Amino acid sequence: MESTFRTENLSVFYGKYEAVKNISLDFPDQSVTALIGPSGCGKSTFLRSLNRMNDEISQATIKGKIWIEGQDINAPDTDVIKLRQKIGMVWQKPNPFYKSIYENIAFGPKYHGIKNKSMLDEIVESSLRKAALWDEVKDRLKQSALSLSGGQQQRLCIARALSVNPGILLLDEPASALDPVSTSKVEELIIELKRELSIVIVTHNMQQAARISDYTAYFYLGTLMEHGDTELIFTNPVNATTQEYISGRFG
Ligand SMILES: Nc1ncnc2c1ncn2[C@@H]1O[C@H](COP(=O)(O)OP(=O)(O)OP(=O)(O)O)[C@@H](O)[C@H]1O
């Protein structure tokens, strides 16, 4: 069965330069797909195109299709704000708003029209619980989000993405700026969240990809060299360059 979220012959260009070349990939529900590959091979470009973040880059154009629930996300009538509600994104560096912990989470739901205070309270609590942060912050919701540690800020950003109930979460190296304890919290969180979501994560950390992902896609020079079950890719890759990359012999 085809996944509800997939790319079909997707290419992404910066001007004439083709950074992502003709990639067809599907992202099954309730699973984690890791995008791996050497620096500059197009992982982030590909990831950003999945919720149209490349729209912000004037020279970026795409060819091919990205489908979600039978809709072409680049169709002219797509509401990009609603699209990003369905497909949340968390970046490498935590980027909380200069607002309180509570307001960071309530911002999205308010933007989408929820005004009722008790409803907002509920969303704030459930999002922070899902992001495994509630117990650490429940007594300081009015404090600035910037008073949190880096690892807490990253889980706050994940909670913020979850507050609008996305079905898909895109993570661009979400733990690369974190210490090992915070990294393992974020990894546990990803494994927990996939019960409800489809997650796509860019990571340079091979152990992390092996630990948390169900599927792995190996990118090289803008092309998809190999894609399949993480266990198979890590134990018996078909491609010699995949083998070299995951064993640390290049990249
Ligand atoms: N805004 C941009 N304008 C022009 N070229 C870009 C832009 N962003 C990325 N590129 C180029 O596109 C190619 C792919 O970059 P991208 O950041 O997607 O790779 P990556 O695999 O995510 O790399 P890394 O692992 O280092 O983050 C690179 O050659 C890069 O220089």
Notes on the protein architecture:
- GO terms for molecular function: ATP binding; ATP hydrolysis activity; phosphate transmembrane transporter activity.
- InterPro entries: AAA+_ATPase, ABC_transporter-like_ATP-bd, ABC_transporter-like_CS, P-loop_NTPase, PstB-like.
- One of its GO terms (biological process) is phosphate ion transmembrane transport.
- This protein has 251 residues and is of the alpha/beta class.
- The chain has one domain (5-71, 80-246): 3-Layer(aba) Sandwich (Rossmann fold), CATH 3.40.50.300.
- The chain contains 10 helices and 10 strands.
- The strands form 2 sheets. Strands 6-7-8-3-9-10 form a 6-stranded mixed sheet, with helices on both faces. Strands 2-1-4-5 form a 4-stranded antiparallel sheet, with helices on one face.
- α3 packs across α4 (117-130) and α3 runs parallel beside α6 (150-162).
- The longest helix is centred in the middle third of the chain and has 14 residues, at 117-130.
- The radius of gyration is 18 Å and the shape is globular.
- The mean pLDDT is 94.
- The protein binds adenosine-5'-triphosphate.
- Residues 14, 19, 37, 39-45, 57 line the site of adenosine-5'-triphosphate (ATP).
- Adenosine-5'-triphosphate binds next to α1.
